[in-house]
């Protein structure tokens, strides 16, 4: 009988005397210096990386201090690494003329990578409607895919979708309706979605226009150019209705778009991005609204007290 001793793997001296802490450290993620050219953008990355003023500030910081926070990437089957989090820092290093940058390489499947990429970017101060729309959609698809693999105790398809939308909404501090309306914007053709980002078309009309067929949306662009006007909410709603009824033609669209718009009443509007800087990150839109109302009520009471005191002083004269 042949000896199997040759199949026995003996531990090295270093392994024998290594502490538990040392073994854990071996398994811990390490920061590596990787060539800029080996790092590639995430597939279908929804967030725009612009060479704007903020980017130039980041470039100056990289030139002076280096990259203080490593980016996260995963190995790419085609070679190199796919950036999961840190596209702006990567671009800043390119502009700064850096050859390498610090990277944490992490093994992530497609769904895990999407969730990390979206969540890390949704923390930014300013996010365009198109960025939020595609980010929500990608995250929803990833969560649904994970849910289908885990089976989620086999609820109905509609229940799975509702569960996934609720998870996206809860983690984004938004309502389920807001998430669904943002995702609907991904049905807009690029030129219209760009107009939403540029605030030429408001969010609510844009949501209604997303129900138009692609060829109808293209026809709308030509009509807007002819009329030198964008649709109001009521006009967008009628365009949607005409489309669903099969009555949206060039003539009917022109008739709707050529109507004189009613004057908008005075109103004050704040975007969530403007308000969010004054509240903790875990505040939901409803909690923000309640807090604003409470503060306004306190301010109202204070003004009433001041007015009473002023009236008393005038009466005592």
Summarize the structure in short.
This protein has 15 helices and five strands. It is α/β, with parallel strands linked by helices and 317 residues long.
Q: Tell me, what's the shape?
A: globular
Overall mean pLDDT: 84
Task: Spell the H/E element sequence.
Answer: HHEEHEEHEHHHHHHHHHHH
Radius of gyration: 28 Å
Query: Helix tally?
Result: 15
The helical percent reads 55-70%
Tally of strands: 5
If strands are numbered along the chain, what order do they take across the biggest sheet? 1-5-3-4-2
Tell me what portion of residues adopts beta-strand conformation: 5-15%
Biggest beta sheet summary: 5 strands, mixed
Uncertain residue segments: 1-13, 22-27
Structural class: alpha/beta
The separation of the N and C termini measures 119 Å
Question: Could you please describe the fold and organization of this structure?
Answer:
The structure is a single chain. With 317 residues, the chain is of the alpha/beta class. Helices cover 56% and strands 7% of the residues. The chain has 15 helices and five strands. The chain has helices at residues 13-16, 20-27, 53-65, 87-95, 110-121, 129-150, 157-172, 176-184, 190-197, 203-209, 214-227, 233-244, 250-257, 272-276, 285-316, and strands spanning 31-35, 39-40, 71-75, 81-85, 100-105. Strand 3 and strand 4 form a beta hairpin. Helix 5 (110-121) runs antiparallel to helix 6 and helix 12 (233-244) packs antiparallel against helix 13. The longest helix is centred in the C-terminal third of the chain and has 32 residues, at 285-316.
């Amino acid at each position: 009988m042949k000896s199997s001793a040759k199949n026995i793997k003996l531990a090295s001296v270093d392994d024998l005397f290594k502490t538990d802490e040392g073994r854990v450290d071996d398994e811990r993620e390490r920061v590596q210096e990787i060539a800029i050219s080996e790092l590639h953008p995430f597939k279908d990355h929804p967030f725009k990386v612009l060479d704007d003023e903020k980017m130039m500030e980041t470039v100056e910081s990289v030139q002076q201090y280096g990259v203080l926070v490593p980016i996260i990437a995963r190995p790419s089957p085609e070679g190199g690494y796919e950036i999961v989090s840190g596209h702006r820092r990567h671009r800043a290093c390119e502009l700064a003329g850096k050859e390498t940058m610090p990277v944490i390489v992490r093994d992530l499947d497609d769904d895990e990578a999407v969730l990390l990429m979206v969540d890390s970017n949704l923390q930014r101060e300013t996010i365009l409607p198109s960025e939020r729309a595609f980010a929500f959609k990608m995250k929803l698809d990833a969560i649904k895919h994970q849910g289908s693999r885990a089976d989620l105790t086999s609820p109905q398809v509609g229940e799975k979708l509702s569960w996934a939308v609720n998870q996206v909404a809860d983690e984004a501090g938004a309502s389920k309706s807001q998430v669904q309306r943002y995702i609907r914007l991904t049905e807009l053709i690029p030129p219209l979605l760009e107009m939403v980002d540029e605030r030429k078309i408001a969010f609510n009309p844009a949501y209604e226009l997303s129900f138009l067929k692609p060829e109808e949306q293209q026809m709308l662009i030509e009509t807007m150019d002819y009329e030198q006007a964008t649709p109001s909410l009521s006009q967008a709603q009628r365009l949607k209705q005409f489309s669903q009824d099969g009555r949206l033609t060039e003539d009917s669209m022109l008739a709707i778009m050529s109507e004189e718009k009613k004057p908008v009443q005075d109103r004050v509007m704040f975007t969530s991005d403007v308000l969010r800087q004054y509240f903790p990150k875990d505040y939901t839109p409803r909690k923000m609204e309640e807090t604003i109302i409470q503060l306004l009520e306190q301010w109202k009471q204070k003004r009433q007290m001041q007015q009473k005191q002023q009236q008393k002083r005038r009466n005592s004269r």
